[in-house]
Input
Amino acid sequence: YSQALNFDAEMAFWSCLLSLFLWLRVSLTAGEWSAEMPKSVVGLSGSCVVIPCTFSYPANGKTYTEFTGVWYKGYYELTVYHTDTSKISDAFQGRTSLTGDLRQNDCSLKISSLSSSDTGPFMFRIEIKDLDKFTYDQNKTSVTVNETPEIPVVSVEEEVTSVKPVTATCAVFHSCPSDLPRVSWNHNGTHSSLSQPQNPGHLRLTLYTLTFTPSREDHNKHLSCSAEYKVKTVTNYKTLKVKCNNPPANSYQWFSSNGILLGNKHTHRLERVSRHTEAMSCTAINTEGKNSSGPRKINVLCK
Output
């Protein structure tokens, strides 16, 4: 009888110990240091890109309110973003921001004025007052920078007949959700747009539509759209090349804001750009007619 009691007591001890182990394991798993971000994102040169990011930490039922978020390029090589902006590396000064709230576990990073030098892996670090600091170095996002955007694609689903309204769609790829491309058509009509869900590692897609009623004059006419992306911010007194992103054309013309012809090539070269540089426009000319971008001012960062 005594042996049976000892056996039951021993079994109860190990059962309690096992229960305690399982409880500790669940508690640690529920509040561990972890982060979610895509393995890669793609951005357009001169535009912006957003790295979606969420993180968790072992709060253990406590509430913390003071967070310091830090993003690095490579393995601590450059400080891409810091809550204390004075600690951001010169190469990223004025170009980065968080799109979410660290108190809501959102560490998403926005990088503006992308260039080819921005390619590479990026990682996030959190510093929580009265708790701890942690670098999520097992979760890195690789950024790829495309130099030129893809040519917009126009499609019309239904058969086009006169007197019957028709809707055309212009598919435009971009990388900056806060600054969508401006689309223009070579035909009058009613405009609308709809952004599509983003696939990780791919450019974003926005569909622009044009609804109009064809007439006899539209017979055999070429319907096209052009996308204008925000011009990148450049440092004053630098040389800048700008490209006309209108539909494929036989010739091009560049004009200053007062109508002076500046050039006639697809790409126009500007010397010693400054904040005094005038707005300009490009016009694409083909057998169907011509299309102008309208005057655009270049954003210049003075240093």
Summary: The chain has three domains: 34-146, 149-229, 231-303. Residues 1-7, 16-30 have pLDDT under 50 and may be disordered. The helical segments are 2-30. The longest helix spans residues 2-30.
